[in-house]
Specification:
Pyruvate-ferredoxin Oxidoreductase, domain 3, 37% helix, alpha/beta, single chain, Rossmann fold
């Protein structure tokens, strides 16, 4: 690199050198069009066969405030947020520069627009500065103010490609794919990319010691947001009704469903949609529409976040008590109340498992990646109809709104939907009597019919008030108690229809239990803990109520650390409430600042507990 400006000095620390193992963070202004350029950068690394984990950190306003985009590059395939700072900061927002420069690790790089001299307050003696006159370049090349902003983003991506020795052909292909329907934009974007690449090469000795090299660690994996995977899973799961009300970060679930359904559920010959998407006036109405559609025999779902779940609880209780199939996708964000709408958390566990007043328990599913979002969403409609109850899928903003690396999605075209215990008109004719809430098979699940099934028998009748086994209104205590006991027995028997937890066990003394987006951080933390002499078995919870294997896992270990991204240890509370296990064995590992949990946070808490509880060496090195 050339000699820095006179106000700066060369780093007193050796520059960071790394191949396919570093973190780049972009500091931008919300609404500046930077998201597509930053995503282009991340996807180019992915296309070069290197595992990558991008995360968008954005404010809850529409435009003007600082936003960040962090890209972790990891040859080893670690996809959790890395703690401890960043290796290369791309600073394009003067508002946040004081905070941004502080995040750079010693020996790291601060890439900025040096059209104007750098503020003396931003000078650190232990990092390296890379200045490029982005504003001067765009002012010279483009007349339109909007084009200057948009192409400035592409120019700095091209400059990064030079610094990190990335293949321009990969970017060219991605740009061609992105603008396949707007071909006139392909060449200008490729030109801007090359302008940044060429200018950086002329000003600095490229590449840096930190660079990207083609690898084969990606395989057939894909990049997809969890919300898109849920939307696609709903299409494959047979959903024909989506009723929703917009709320961050779940809105793109319904948008993805509509996009996929318009391609796959449109009868061109009849010019007819085989699906319906309804934007309700609020979340309560959306849930009511889902219940109405489910009662009529359609597979229906809604998507929301924590505040929406709060509004839906009364209707969730109705669906539980009346035993109507429904699917709810809850993309969690921080709370309570409005909280931080654009930050992530796992704070809705208790509100979902026990949603509604009275004695209510709901089946909940916890995907950790896009493939699980797709698989569990598709399967949720089978579960809802088999169990005649709401199924709640809990993801979060980190998974829902970020492009995540994932195993490829697969679907068996021979797969048949499980519609559960539904009587046909012919079957009704063979019955002397029919009781909508009569458990004739002893499996705690009663038979139902759909409206209009039979021309004479009103067998589709359903009640959300206290009733007897024939759906007749009653306030007699024995009938109410019998019904409530059957509902509880059905819930406890539900694991037979739910996914089993994923267990990795080597017979160690200590275990770690986790769910959702904590998965990647836990698996990396297991390696960190092992390097310090602590071996951990792992169990990923996929569903509540729990399989017996969860109890077995707890009983088999001296301590089980329950990793959660909330303050109040909500999953631990559910474990203690639903299972017969020793509370002293379940140790909470908590993180709740709105930023995704990292492996170092988990490993540090586990090691600290063990060092103060039992004789475990801090390190074996």
């Amino acid at each position: 690199m050339p000699k820095p400006e006179s106000s700066e000095k060369k780093s007193s620390v050796a520059p960071i050198t790394a191949i396919n193992d570093f973190v780049v963070k972009f500091a931008n202004v919300n609404g500046s069009g930077s998201a597509s350029a930053n995503t282009l950068f991340a996807k180019a690394i992915f296309r070069m066969g290197v595992p990558v984990a991008p995360r968008n950190i954005f404010p809850s306003n529409i435009q003007g405030l600082p936003t960040w985009y962090e890209v972790r590059v990891s040859e080893q395939g670690y996809l959790a947020k890395r703690g401890g700072g960043v290796d290369l900061m791309v600073s394009v927002n003067p508002q946040s520069q004081l905070d941004d420069v502080a995040e750079v690790l010693p020996g790291g790089y601060f890439f900025y627009d040096n059209t104007r001299p750098l503020d003396i307050r931003l000078i650190r003696r232990d990092i390296n500065y890379i200045g490029l006159p982005l504003t001067d370049i765009t002012n010279r090349e483009y007349d339109d103010a909007r084009l200057r902003q948009l192409f400035k983003n592409v120019i700095y991506v091209g400059a990064l490609a030079a610094l990190l020795d990335m293949e321009l052909a990969v970017f060219d292909k991605l740009i061609a794919e992105q603008f396949a329907h707007k071909e006139k934009l392909i060449k200008p974007n490729c030109d801007a990319l090359r302008l940044g690449y060429k200018t950086m090469g002329e000003m600095y000795s490229c590449p840096l010691g930190m660079n990207v090299r083609r690898s084969d660690r990606v395989g057939d994996q894909i990049m997809m947001t969890g919300n898109s995977a849920c939307g696609l899973g709903a299409v494959y799961g047979g959903a024909s009704v989506a009723a929703w009300y917009p709320i961050t970060p779940s809105t793109s679930v319904a948008e993805a469903y509509e996009s996929y359904a318009s391609q796959m559920r449109y009868d061109k010959e009849a010019d007819r949609k085989d699906y319906v998407v309804i934007q309700a006036e609020d979340e309560l109405a959306a849930m009511g529409m889902v219940i109405g559609a489910g009662w009529n025999g359609a597979r229906a779902f809604t998507a929301t976040s924590g505040p929406g779940v709060s509004l839906m609880t009364e209707f969730l209780g109705l669906a539980y008590f009346a035993e109507v199939p429904a699917v709810l996708i809850d993309v969690q964000r921080t709370g309570p109340s409005t909280g931080m709408p654009t930050r992530t958390q796992q704070g809705d566990i208790l509100s979902c498992v026990y949603a509604s007043h009275g004695d209510t328990r709901h089946v909940c599913l916890f995907p950790a990646n896009p493939k699980q979002c797709f698989d569990l969403t598709a399967a949720a409609f089978d579960m809802a109809e088999r169990l005649q109850t709401p199924i709640i899928i809990l993801t979060d903003l980190d998974l829902g709104m970020n492009e995540c690396m994932s195993e490829a999605l697969h679907w068996d075209d021979e797969r048949k939907y499980d519609r559960g215990k539904v009587l046909s008109s012919e079957q009704l004719d063979e019955l002397d009597e029919f009781g909508r809430y009569l458990d004739v098979d002893g499996d705690h699940i009663t038979w139902r019919t759909l409206p209009g099934t039979h021309p004479e028998k009103g067998a589709f009748f359903t009640r959300g008030t206290s009733r007897d086994e024939y759906a007749l209104y009653t306030e007699k205590s024995p009938a109410y108690e019998k019904n409530m006991e059957r509902l509880l027995a059905k819930w406890k028997a539900a694991p037979a229809w739910l996914p089993e937890p994923l267990i990795q066990s080597d017979g160690n003394s200590y275990g770690v239990m986790y769910y959702g987006t904590s998965a990647d951080a836990v698996l990396e933390a297991r390696d960190l803990a092992k390097s310090q002499g602590v071996a951990l078995d792992c169990l990923q919870i996929l569903a509540v109520p729990f399989h017996d294997s969860v109890t077995d896992f707890i009983n088999a270990h001296d301590y089980v650390f329950v990793v959660e991204q909330n303050r109040d240890a909500q999953m631990r509370t559910v474990l203690l409430s639903e299972l017969s296990c020793d509370p002293s064995k379940l140790v909470s590992v908590l993180h709740y600042n709105g930023i995704p949990i990292s492996a170092d946070v988990i490993a540090e808490q586990i090691i600290n507990v063990l060092q103060h509880s039992v004789a475990v060496p801090a390190s074996t090195s």
